């Protein structure tokens, strides 16, 4: 190995919350215009990459990062096993995209330690894709301007650009048009993970159906302008609501119950993130997460998180 060459790269790939989210019209390209405040949080997967002669491989291991609570159902019992992932995994797609655009030589082995629940609205897959891009660049000691990385990210998924951008941002368009915001009050929150999941595609479809019965203007995207003054407070953004909470169908009762139980345990302003199904709520200052978790009644897994200012942390393994 040449002098100074990395034996590998480790990337912390952080999840996101949508503090508020409004879905607008369906566009001719099939995507929906939306306005949202994205926030990076501390819950993270770990991606490790090592160089190999050729080809890209990925093995995934699961780890339960939820609070240990009596009564909460333990999931992810497969945590000990390592499973090879399919070629369509976003990590491999992201790695191949970077390798192709930069004509990089050689392949890479990826190991992914998954802690972010999937199909939750927490942007786990997008975080992993952004981490894979960052890992490939560091491994090959290449620098690419942010604007180019954001373009590549948008080819991988609507939430991947924010997973590259990180921190606090206003998202517009299909989520890929990003404006940096200053989070005036950093916060702690509890994320609750129900056992039911939501299909994002179906949720957008249900919003279209619902809108057929409403007059125009029922979904103003105007809050984009109010937070575009580049400062945002968590409570202000949360009060904007989330359009996806209105199309939960048979899950509505479970959602309403979860919101009520989060409030009853001392948390503030529960809100769904993305198209769900995870629901988060703010931890008031000076209130202990352990106390709140002990007061919470229900089977949902709970995660204690805090707002973060960057999406990834990249370290070189020597
Ligand atoms: O971009 P991504 O692959 O994450 O999107 C998954 C699906 O969600 C899309 O195929 C589309 O049906 C829907 N979507 C949408 N409008 C958005 C983002 C996603 O309709 N802004």
Helix and strand topology:
Layout: E1 8-26, E2 32-52, E3 56-62, E4 82-84, H1 90-101, E5 107-114, H2 124-139, H3 146-156, H4 160-165, E6 168-172, E7 177-180, E8 182-183, E9 188-193, H5 200-212, H6 223-227, E10 231-232, H7 234-238, H8 252-264, E11 268-272, E12 279-282, H9 289-295, E13 301-306, E14 312-317
Parallel strand pairs: 3-5, 8-10
Antiparallel strand pairs: 1-2, 1-14, 2-5, 2-6, 3-4, 6-7, 9-12, 9-13, 11-12
The protein binds cytidine-5'-monophosphate.
Explain this structure to me?
The protein is of the alpha+beta class. It has one domain (1-318): Ribosomal Protein S5, domain 2, CATH 3.30.230.10. The chain is built from 9 helices and 14 strands. Strands 1, 2, 3, 4, 5, 6, 7 and 14 form an 8-stranded mixed beta sheet that branches. A 4-stranded antiparallel beta sheet has the order 11-12-9-13, covered by helices on one side. A two-stranded parallel ribbon has the order 8-10. Strand 1 and strand 2 form a beta hairpin. The chain is globular, with a radius of gyration of 20 Å. The model has no long low-confidence stretch (mean pLDDT 90). The structure holds cytidine-5'-monophosphate (C5P). Residues 30-32, 34, 157-159, 174-175, 200-201, 204 line the site of cytidine-5'-monophosphate.
């Amino acid at each position: 190995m040449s002098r100074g060459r990395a034996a590998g790269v480790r990337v912390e790939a952080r999840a996101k919350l949508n503090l508020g989210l409004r879905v607008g019209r369906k566009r001719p390209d099939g995507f929906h215009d939306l306005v949202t405040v994205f926030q990076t949080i501390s819950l993270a997967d770990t991606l490790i990459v090592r160089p190999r002669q050729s080809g890209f491989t990925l093995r995934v291991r699961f780890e339960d990062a939820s609070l240990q609570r009596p009564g909460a159902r333990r999931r992810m019992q497969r945590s000990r096993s390592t499973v090879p992932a399919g070629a369509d995994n976003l990590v491999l797609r992201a790695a191949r995209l970077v390798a192709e655009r930069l004509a990089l030589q050689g392949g890479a082995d990826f190991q992914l330690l998954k802690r972010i629940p999937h199909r939750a609205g927490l942007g786990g897959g997008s975080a992993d894709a952004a981490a894979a891009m960052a890992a490939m660049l560091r491994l090959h000691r290449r620098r690419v301007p942010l604007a180019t990385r954001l373009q590549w990210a948008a080819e991988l998924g609507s939430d991947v650009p924010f997973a590259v951008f990180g921190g606090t941002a206003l998202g517009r368009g299909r989520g890929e048009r990003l404006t940096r915001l200053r989070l005036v009050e950093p916060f702690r929150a509890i994320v609750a993970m129900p056992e039911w999941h939501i299909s994002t595609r179906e949720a957008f479809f249900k919003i279209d159906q619902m809108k057929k019965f409403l007059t125009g203007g029922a979904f103003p995207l105007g809050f984009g302008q109010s937070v575009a003054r580049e400062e945002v407070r968590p409570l202000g953004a949360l009060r904007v609501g989330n359009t996806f909470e209105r199309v939960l169908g048979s899950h509505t009762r479970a959602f309403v119950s979860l919101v009520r139980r989060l409030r009853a345990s001392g948390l503030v302003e529960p809100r769904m993130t993305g198209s769900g199904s995870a629901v988060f709520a703010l931890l008031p200052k000076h209130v202990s997460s352990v106390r709140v978790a002990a007061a919470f009644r229900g089977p949902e897994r709970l995660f204690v998180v805090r707002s973060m200012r960057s999406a990834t942390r990249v370290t070189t393994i020597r």
